[in-house]
Amino acid sequence: MTATADIVSGLHCEQDGDGRYLFPHIPPGERGVVFGGQLLAQLAVAVARNDTSGTKSLKSAHGLFARAVLVDEEASVTVDVLHSGRAFASASATMWQRGRECAKALVLLHASDSDLIRHAAEAPDVGSPEAAIPWGDPTAGREVRTVDGVDILDADTTGPAEVQAWVRVPGATDDLTLNQGLLTHATASFLIGAAMRPHSGVGQSIAHRDISTGILGHTISFHEDVDLRDWILLVNESPYAGRGRSFGRGQAFTLTGQLVASFSQEAMIRHFPEGESAVGRESTVF
Fold this sequence. Notes:
By secondary structure, this protein is mainly beta. The chain is 12% helix and 35% strand.
């Protein structure tokens, strides 16, 4: 399919046969490849659209990204249903390009039950979105404001290994699957930056130019329904980085403080292999 202008359109799929879906890309893409958060969002949305029960929604998605997906070439998603029952359904989804498997996700769907028990983490007191600082988000159609004006691009300013950001997508609809896909995309956006913050001279402004970074795997679990037309607070932290890798985790809260999702990420932050040029080489990503 052709490229599209914004994140909402980028999650609208076209069915192309049994269990096969096509998604448009969102240009220009990071260094000419599709962002990992977009890949997992599309894989999860494909599984949800493939389910015909009409009673289930996304519960969790875990994606692994083995090969870069190029923005300027067609890619497709295939869905393989593992099980579909009354309360749960599970499937794997695979992103294909050039006849090769590039990314894969295991996705769980569920039909909600009434509470037997209930508890949830409380949102941190970070002030309102209006008190946060607008951030130059490269994803068209999305608004981002960072708490205390944290800039993950800045390689010269250090701070704790955490980033708190308000995110919304004004052009979203009331479609739950779309909103869950939008949140999936957003939760993958700040964890590498959070891992870099404590380290002087390291920031996303030098990524793919002086150092090699990339998302290896991302997981999200949905707890409640979500609407990205309203502000969502993403609380991101990186408890560990080392050996060329980083680990990040986070939670997503509504304006009223309701916990709607939790997420985690495995990523790569390392020197380029000796003799490798960073410029124009998607093969250096992994």
